[in-house]
Amino acid sequence: MAANNRRMSGKKGAQVGSGGQRRRGLEGKGPTPPAEMRKGHAKQRAAQAKARRATGRAPQRRGGRSASELVVGRNPVVEALREGVPASTLYVQQFIDNDERVREALQLAADRGGINLMEAPRPELDRMTNGLNHQGLVLQVPPYEYAHPEDLVAGAHDEGQDPLIVALDGVTDPRNLGAVVRSVSAFGGHGVVVPERRAAGMTAGAWKTSAGTAARTPVARATNLTRALEAYKKAGITVVGLAADGEAELGELAALDGPVVIVVGSEGKGLSRLVGETCDVRVRIPMPGGAESLNAGVAAGIVLYEVARRRA
């Protein structure tokens, strides 16, 4: 074997056949870029989300996607378009009876831009909607792209604020989710967390109830809500659960002054056992009128108002 093809372990520096890799490995890589420029960093995701909200672009987040949805019928389609529900395609039946609602739907879709207008025969619309009474109008709502629970905290810190987040436990009505999103937006919150399973998602109904605020208030989806809450606690955020038998009363809870996650359960069952045990404290809303419970949207709004009042 030729001598110049052998590695000499006693030599320092680059050896024959190394291509100078050792020398390049010792070279500096320059200063560490700021967190906002590092791929995958929570601060980068928060900065990107903030820029998208400022430009009105749809969010592109790593929390996963929901399934696409169809809004069916003349009145539902017109109402969805009026409320700014995101839409990708408006399907119109061929030779449709062109009444006032059809004309308004076509005008709203044209005014918004970015919505495809497709003419389709009635049998095709029947197939798409599984035989529902579509009345010749079908609106396709694209999949919602959820945030990751960490993104909500990063977004709050990016704005120089203490995180204010609402987590929903067992809330299955999309209208309640939409109402909570609207309240979070109104009182300066930083987002809503929902479980991935057995929970309401960002459907067209939730979008409508949010009255357009879902476009600027992120909704995150957690694979496991209990673990998400534990991660928030490790990040120094107090987790406050709402419960009729809570040990503290809303007006007396000092924890609302700092970073906080408010956990709201369903009106019927309240907080699940594991989620209730994960909370740092459970708080009750005084109701002198004697009502046994409040729905999730109303309860969240009351607590968010109290937090906003104290922070002001």
From TrEMBL:
GO molecular function: RNA binding; RNA methyltransferase activity
GO BP: methylation; RNA processing
InterPro entries registered for this protein in UniProt: Alpha/beta_knot_MTases (IPR029028), Ribosomal_eL30-like_sf (IPR029064), rRNA_MeTrfase_TrmH (IPR004441), SpoU_MeTrfase (IPR001537), SpoU_subst-bd (IPR013123), tRNA_m1G_MTases_N (IPR029026)
Pfam families, A to Z: SpoU_methylase, SpoU_sub_bind
GO CC field: cytosol
Gene3D superfamilies, sorted: 3.30.1330.30, 3.40.1280.10
Keywords tagged on the record: Methyltransferase, Transferase
Chain spans, region Disordered: 1-70
Residue ranges occupied by any RNA 2-O ribose methyltransferase substrate binding domain in the UniProt entry: 70-147
Biased composition (Basic residues): 40-64
Membership in a protein family: Belongs to the class IV-like SAM-binding methyltransferase superfamily. RNA methyltransferase TrmH family.
NCBIfam families linked: rRNA_methyl_3 (TIGR00186)
Name the UniProt record assigns to this protein: 23S rRNA (Guanosine(2251)-2'-O)-methyltransferase RlmB
Species the sequence originates in: Streptomyces sp. SID14436
Taxonomic classification: Bacteria, Bacillati, Actinomycetota, Actinomycetes, Kitasatosporales
